[in-house]
Amino acid sequence: MFEEPTVSTDVDTFLTTVYCLVDDVYRQHVAPVRAHLPGRPGELSDSEVLTLTLLCQWQSARSERQFVAWAAAHWRAYFPRLLSQSAFNRRARQLYGVLARLSDWIRQAVETQLGQVSVYEVVDGVPVPLMRRCRGRRHHCFGVEADFGHGGSDQELYYGVKVMAAVNAVGFVTGWVVGPASTEEHWLGEALWRWRQVPTAPEPRADQLAEVLGPSHRHGGRRAGPSGPVRGRLSAGQPFAGPSLSDLGLRGTNWRHHWRQHLGAAVLLKTDYADGPERQFAVCWFNRLRHTIEQTFSVLDAVLGLKFPRARTYWGLLTRLAAKLSAYNAAIAVNYLLGRPTYALLNPLA
């Protein structure tokens, strides 16, 4: 007689808590809208598909086919009617709009439940390579959505996209946008704070801000603007009243004045501290506050595979990015609810 593989208590609690978090926010924000869609209900509910999509991000090979096979062998008690890999892939991409908002819904639900309030957030960009460079600079999977750029602490050349994310003091990702690798962080920041205020606003372009920002310091005085499409209208998050701590990538007097006056975003840099005997202490304190986002990016890369997500289409890339950011917030939420260390993410596939 065949026996189902046993699941440890920690994993059992983790799976149950993640599903309950996802199902609660789905019923609150999405179910009233999708209830009117035509067609018969799927064999797997949307909440189950979303939960599996988040759990899939812990799969070390970043292969949906391997994950579906693993779940069929080990999690039949939790998901008795699993889909095939192709059907799971289609359902996950159909729910991209929900995945893009899911991380912020989870954050809001947990912070409200625990009474947590963040007085600041940290913003920064992170490179997301999509493939390794060989000889030459040819690429076939993506068009203008991805290109070559420099990123990371060593400013290494890579081919892919750049994600700008905001992380609050509690450790949750509060919003994110994505653009081609060569896009200046100013334009990603503009998209993030613009879509927080007006989600239906158009993508930022150089001609829209020419009068506000004035001429550039480059030859000819013209601003280049984004190098390709910028996405993240649904994932930008909610307006934040507190300051946004940034590195020097967002320096620029005209930019920061525009963000404060027109978008309500107060961007602070370590260079804002006046010279004096306590300036060094203040800069060290500022850098310690910014360590939150460095820890977040480290976890996203090492645990959830943010870099080299193995996407083959732009739609698939956006879906995987949304799933990884939502999986991160779900794992942080579980840690808070169960009294675990904030960044000690449990691996449900271990």
Task: Describe it.
The chain is of the alpha/beta class and 350 residues long. The protein has helices spanning 9-29, 31-34, 46-55, 64-74, 85-94, 96-114, 185-197, 210-213, 253-263, 279-302, 314-338, and strands at 121-131, 147-151, 156-168, 173-180, 243-245, 266-268. The chain has eleven helices and six strands. Strand 2 and strand 3 form a beta hairpin. The model has no long low-confidence stretch (mean pLDDT 90). Helices cover 43% and strands 12% of the residues.
SSE blueprint:
Layout: H1 9-29, H2 31-34, H3 46-55, H4 64-74, H5 85-94, H6 96-114, E1 121-131, E2 147-151, E3 156-168, E4 173-180, H7 185-197, H8 210-213, E5 243-245, H9 253-263, E6 266-268, H10 279-302, H11 314-338
Parallel strand pairs: 1-5, 5-6
Antiparallel strand pairs: 1-3, 2-3, 3-4
Helix pairs in contact: 1-3, 1-6, 3-11, 4-5, 6-11
Helix-residue proportion: 40-55%
Strand element count: 6
Number of helices: 11
Mean pLDDT value: 90
Secondary-structure element series: HHHHHHEEEEHHEHEHH
- SS-based structural class? alpha/beta
Rg, nearest Å = 21 Å
Which consecutive residue ranges, at least 5 long each, have pLDDT under 50? none
Residue fraction in strands:
5-15%
For the termini, the CA-CA separation is: 25 Å
Oligomer: single chain
Net shape = globular
Largest sheet properties: 6 strands, mixed
Name its key features.
350 residues; six-stranded mixed beta sheet; alpha/beta
Brief synopsis:
The protein is 43% helix and 12% strand. It is α/β, with parallel strands linked by helices and 350 residues long.
